[in-house]
Amino acid sequence: MITIGADVHLKTTTMTVINHDGTKITRRKINNDPDELVEFVRQFPGPKQFAMESCYTWPAVYELMNKEFDQFHLLHATKMKNIIESQSKCDKHDADEIALLTHRGYIPAAHTANAQTRQLRGLLRTRVGLARDIAGIKNHIQAILNANTFYSQRPKNFKDIFCKRGLAYLQSIHFPEQDQFTISQLFKQKEHLEQLKKQFDERIQALHADDPDLRILRTAPGMNGKVLNYIVLAEIDTIDRFRNSDALIAYAGLVARDKSSGDKQRKGRLRTACNQYLKWALIEAAVPAMLKDKALRDYYRKVKESYHGSAAKIAVARRLLRSIYHMLKEQRPYSSNGRPQITHMMTLSSASSAR
User: How far apart are CA 254 and CA 355, in angstroms?
Assistant: First the structure.
């Protein structure tokens, strides 16, 4: 089988072609023109496989090249960097290494979601980004308030500065001229972003997906809202790609960094190299899940006794995601003891087989 390794950039792509015996046939740098790319790969007969690192442009390359090859491999960019990083960093060396590793069968693969899932992810991730931007603006306004007033001087009839009474208090303060201008502009930006967020929410609410996985996920506590449901399903995509629940939890970054060596056990902060959107969704769902499920609430209190509230909240999110894994894997609804229940299994299984 002929192997083509590609180092893809915005304007150009460097391709290295390796024969079935591992010998290099050619290497060429091509402009990212669809006709030129297809013309280059079509000159090599026989079964072919194509490999490239994940990047922002991979969906366009995938849609173009998938039909031209017997196998398409999307490589995990971070893992590939750890493997091929050297003092000599250039496109031709990267293309050579990608082709050689693929030929030898050492492929740190990344998941290739279909077009529908990618579009849904884009919609949902933009909505999450808007929510984060609004939170950032609120934090900025809060910081200006803290720089000009003491907490003890504030009225005690509100907890949130952005509630009706809190806003009335904020308007009564005589800030310095520049701070007052900054606050007024931040409020305008906040109002604009909230309007955009509302439009995205309306778009998401209008989605109609008759998916058995969605019906099962809605039985989990804290997963009643469409935004959280769709984010969890879109980011997981296919539950079978995770070998077990621990792999899914690690993918969501709900485990601490492990720097243990020998007899020394060192645990750090939560992983950052993970799916940040899935992590956000599970942490957002943790509090409402505790309010609805006594077992999770008792678990939160138990963990909090030994650690602190933030660690306990993460622990609840982790336990909730573990339950979601078994729910989707076994096509069973959630039960109050934190384990998927067997009741109605036949109904849900028959619905799953109709997919």
Answer: 31
Our measurement of the distance from residue 235's CA atom to the centroid of its chain's CA atoms, rounded to an integer in Å, reads 6
CA dihedral 342, 337, 322, 237 (to 10 degrees): 50
Mean pLDDT of 114-139: 94
Q: CA 336, 338, 340, 342 torsion: positive or negative? A: negative
Indicate the DSSP class of residue 68. Answer: G
Token pair, residue 15, equals 């391709």
Q: The tokens of 89 are what?
A: 């960093």
pLDDT in tens, 173-189: 999 999 999 999 999 99
Alpha helices in the chain (DSSP H): 34-42, 58-65, 77-84, 91-104, 115-148, 164-172, 177-205, 212-217, 226-236, 245-251, 276-292, 294-306, 309-330, 345-353
CA 57 to CA 118: how far, in whole Å?
Answer: 12
Tens-place pLDDT, residues 232-257: 999 999 999 999 999 999 999 998 76
Q: Are 18 and 24 in contact (CB under 8 A)?
A: yes
Domain boundaries, the chain: 2-104, 115-205, 212-353
Contact by Cβ (8 Å): 117, 35: no
Task: Give the separation between CA 253 and CA 273, rounded to whole angstroms.
Answer: 7
Q: Alpha-carbon distance 71 to 65, whole Å?
A: 10
Q: pTM of the predicted model, to two decimals?
A: 0.78
What is the phi/psi pair of residue 16, to 5°?
-115, 130
Q: CA 113, CA 235: separation in Å to the nearest integer?
A: 9
For 2-104, CATH number out of 3.40.640.10, 3.40.50.720, 3.30.420.40, 3.40.50.10810 equals 3.30.420.40
